[in-house]
Amino acid sequence: MSSEWKRRREGGGRFALSLIRNIGRCCGRTPARALLYPITLYFLLRRGAERRDSRAYLSRVFGRPATLGEVARHIHTFAATILDRIYLLSESTRRFDVRTEGLPTLHRHLEAGRGVLLFGSHLGSFEVLRVLARQRPDTPIRVVLDRAHGRAVTELLEALNPEVAATVIDAGADGPSVALAIQGALTQGAMVALLVDRSQEGGATLEVPFFGAPAPFPVAPWLLASVLKVPVMLAFGLYRGGNRYDLVFEPFSEGVDLPRRERMRGVAALICRYAARLEHHARSAPYNWFNFYDFWKRDARASVAGALPAAGDAGPGPDLERGADR
Questions:
Q1: Burial level of 180, CB count in 10 A (0-12/13-18/19+)?
Q2: b/e map of 110-135 (b: 16 or more CB within 10 Å)?
């Protein structure tokens, strides 16, 4: 992930998040949503970096300079999904109108006893996957998250549902440990959900076209998928306003196979396909993009050279890959 984003302090702090949580749980979602307007105003007035990055992103999407009102709507949408996470993690999912697409393919994989990698992004709400967990209580969902980043949000939301918190795979752990945890969950037939549009700080990336310009995407998830060779599906939980979400599943691969001698070319092709689908859904729900930093700015410390061997090189892969092979 961008080192600039990693260094930014959390907006609002623990007090504001606790206030939203308590009002939301005691008074209900409607009164809590009234707080979203002062929160939006706070970000507009006090968080200049996020405001500028929102405007830059929206200008790319719309092909013209974004207005302040559009930036405000972008921030308000983000705040709304954060509030809804409180209810989704509390398993109060029936209050939402969630429309699903693409479930037959996902169910086919699960009924065959195969684990599935769900590749998502910071587009919309990944927590809406909890609705799927309610529909299939026999199939666990393990989500890979960096517990250390956004600690205030993590602590508050994990307090809502300790059982959910216990299923999280910590992306901040070392590569082999993460890979082994993912492999173990898949072996048990679980769905493992990862956000694959940001790399860890200093992680290897490849630049591919995204909204008309090269943007860096992480390499590690695709190398891991090539080792595990389980089905990969894309997942998007798009917020459509009010209480409505669209939960979209798209088949991506029955099992990623990257011959070692063609690994770089294969990874680039996979990331290009993923970026194209991410752009498609971002255009359909532009205010759902929650990467509030310069996504197109390459982090000088994130180099792909250390992760992918040159063509024809048969040397060992990265630690993440070796961990999954153990």
A1: middle
A2: beeeebbbbbbbbbbbbbbbbbbbee
For 7, residues 6+ apart whose C-beta sits below 8 A from its C-beta are: none
Distance between CA 195 and CA 234 in Å, rounded?
Answer: 10
Q: CA-CA distances (angstroms) from residue 207 to 85, 109, 211, 215, 274? A: 31, 31, 12, 5, 12
- Residue 123 has which token pair? 């587009």
What is residue 109's three-state secondary structure?
Answer: helix
Closest CA to 177 of 47, 319, 24: 319
Compute CA 238 distance to the chain's CA centroid, rounded to the nearest angstrom.
12
Q: Could you say which DSSP state residue 123 is in?
A: B
The values of phi and psi at residue 233, to 5°, are: -125, 145
The answer, yes or no, to whether residue 2 has pLDDT greater than 70, is no
Residue 9: the pLDDT is 47
DSSP 249-290: EEEEESS----GGGHHHHHHHHHHHHHHHHHHHHHHSGGGB-
160-192 per-position pLDDT tens digit: 666 777 778 877 777 788 889 999 999 988 899
Q: What are residue 289's phi and psi, to 5 degrees?
A: -80, 115
Provide the H-helix boundaries in the chain.
3-7, 13-27, 29-34, 36-46, 48-62, 68-89, 103-111, 130-135, 151-160, 162-166, 175-187, 220-228, 263-284, 319-325
Name the token pair of 269. Answer: 């092709």
Whole-Å CA distances, 160 to 77, 115, 194, 262: 22, 27, 21, 46
The C-alpha atoms of residue 1 and residue 150 are separated, in whole angstroms, by 13
Q: What pLDDT is stored for residue 271 in this prediction?
A: 97
Q: Which of 239, 225, 85, 100 is nearest to 164 (CA)?
A: 85
93-126 pLDDT, tens digit per residue, is: 778 899 999 999 998 988 888 899 999 999 999 8
Helices 48-62 and 36-46 meet at what angle, rounded to 10?
A: 100
